[in-house]
Amino acid sequence: MNALSIDVEDYFQVHAFEKVIRRADWDKYAPRVVQNTRRVLSILSDCDTRATFFILGWIAERFPALVQEIVSAGHEIATHGYAHELIYRQTPAEFEADLEKSLSAIQRAVSVPVWGFRAPAFSITKQSLWALDILKKNGLRYDSSIFPLAAHDRYGIPDAQRFAHRTEVGLWEFPVSTLRLARWNLPVAGGGYFRLYPAWLTRFAIRRINAGGNPAVVYLHPWEFDPEQPRVENASALSKFRHYVNLDRTESRLRRLLKEFRFAPLREVFAPQLNTDNGGRD
Ligand SMILES: [Zn+2]
Which among 131, 194, 129 is positioned nearest to 156, based on CA atoms? Predict the structure, then answer.
């Protein structure tokens, strides 16, 4: 069993565009997150698969009915923070305020326990590991934000563990999957990498991870299922490449993946780990 996760945010909120789209202007953009998330929900329903939805508080606040739809379909609700701010750019107090705001936005929409957190752009790095303590303090049970990766400008801890482990503060960490090649961790299990690399590479990685006795952790975003989204023309060439490459293939690739492998929400896949926290009582 592998873990599938969807980071629920809109196309204009990604860090690739932060230099050209100000946070204060987000409300001026016509939202596409509702229709795109519904597209994801319908693919998952077709393939009889449930996932974890890490929802941005900003989205939950504006679209509580969408959060309710996700819950009604049996998926796990988790948080992606409120304003999609990189954690290592925040002070601990700012991060905690953002986290609390996201949790209360989700809780206003639905009354389900929230156990999981994924940082915007995997921004728990060596300089922001203090965030784990704040997550624990605020009742979160797991984090899925540390990318065991060396070569990226925005995220990654090169020597981080690749699989589920308990962090020093006692919070569980479930990293997104990488393929180990020689001394390198290659990201193949989500986002732009999932769209860029040939589909067989992702399947090969998942088979290899599973053969080692571990679940894979795959992540995607609703905007990745939307080839018709408006183009942000004044972004850098690299940002545009990362954001737009193969958007028209996400859906077919995911459908094929869901046929070949079994997926479930993180909370279920990692129940053996999470249940050790309370002696298996829930
Ligand atoms: Zn995000």
Answer: 129
At residue 69, the 3 state secondary structure works out as helix
Ligand 1 midpoint to CA 66 (Å)? 17
CB 81 within 8 A of CB 57: yes
- Per residue in 174-215, pLDDT tens? 999 999 988 889 888 999 889 999 999 999 999 999 999 999
Distance 108 CA to ligand 1 centre (A): 21
Q: pTM for this one?
A: 0.96
CATH number at residue 117: 3.20.20.370
Considering its fold, how many domains does the chain have in total? Answer: 1
Residue span of the structural domain in which 86 resides: 2-22+31-278
Q: What are the residues whose beta carbons fall under 8 Å from the beta carbon of 157, sequence distance 6 or more? A: 125, 126, 146, 147, 148, 149
